[in-house]
Amino acid sequence: MLERVLPYAKTLLSSVIKEGDVAVDATAGNGHDTVFLAELVGDSGFVYAFDIQQQAVDATKDRLKKHGLEKRVKVILDGHEHLSKYIQEEIAGAIFNLGYLPGGSHDIITKGATTISAIQQLLSRLKIGGLIVLVVYPGHEGGKEERDAVIEYVSQLPQKYVHVLRYEFINQKNDPPFLIALEKMKKLPDSE
Length: 192
Ligand SMILES: C[S@@+](CC[C@H](N)C(=O)[O-])C[C@H]1O[C@@H](n2cnc3c(N)ncnc32)[C@H](O)[C@@H]1O
What we know:
The protein is α/β, with parallel strands linked by helices. It has one domain (5-184): Rossmann fold. 32% of the residues lie in helices and 24% in strands. It contains five helices and seven strands. The chain has helices spanning 5-16, 32-41, 54-66, 112-125, 143-155; strands at residues 22-25, 46-51, 73-77, 91-97, 126-136, 162-167, 178-184. Strands 3-2-1-4-5-7-6 form a seven-stranded mixed β-sheet, with helices on both faces. The relative contact order is 0.16. The model has no long low-confidence stretch (mean pLDDT 97). S-adenosylmethionine is lined by residues 27, 29-33, 50-53, 56, 79-81, 97, 99, 101, 108, 110, 114. InterPro entries: MnmM_MeTrfase, SAM-dependent_MTases_sf.
């Protein structure tokens, strides 16, 4: 069976994130992916989760508490484009679930420029062999602009340094989500 997009994102992340690793949820939302990452890194690992909405930070903290995982995670009320301010360690994996907060305002959405800035910062901190996974939603207002900006940026990354995958069901109607995964192969020339 062909794995669906969201389960495939988890399959990819669990192939690289191990006990003791540092991982990033760039769009915490209701905290589902944050919990998933916190389980992968185990007691000796750590997760940084970002969201610009207080509602999302609260929902994520609540979900972590319910799972007894709050000690493994720092939930940060700030944009992922500022992640270098918060993270100095080497990162094993990161996830972006783009778009708007389910159950929240459809006007607060991720945007191409800030998503790309976060990807650049993550690439410089990613381990060799580490993965950045993005689930892209082109269906909502503003979604296609973000999709086009992200695709344009990741397509030009030199393959010597980053392998870029697009995983997509191409015969589904209504702009279904698709996945982009970036695997760091080699230290990038301009990274610290
Ligand atoms: C599709 S939702 C994430 C869903 C989440 N993964 C979950 O499990 O519920 C996208 C989230 O990105 C957040 N967001 C928008 N711009 C952001 C930014 N610059 N930095 C961090 N989060 C942002 C929104 O507030 C929203 O909660």
